[in-house]
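User: structure tokens for this one?
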Amino acid sequence: MSDRSQVPDFNPQGPQLVNVALADHIAARIATGELRPGVRLPAERALADEYGVAYMTVRRAAAVLRERGLIVTVHGKGTFVVEQKPEEAGPGDGRE
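Assistant:
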């Protein structure tokens, strides 16, 4: 189990759109390893219940995450966390 305390609570405020705030929260869960590559995300309706938002908000957040390259949706299978590519390595990275 990962330490969920690393991810701030989902509490959208101010001018930020709720779907973007939700995408940011799920992205943080991915970044901390709570949601690992290859893991299937819960169904959109289940995520809507979990976060207390409308179903369409989750759909829009998923679109944002797909644009960011963090998730992929496979028709008939579900939505999965994508394996993140390592950042461009600099000099001295051991690759020649």
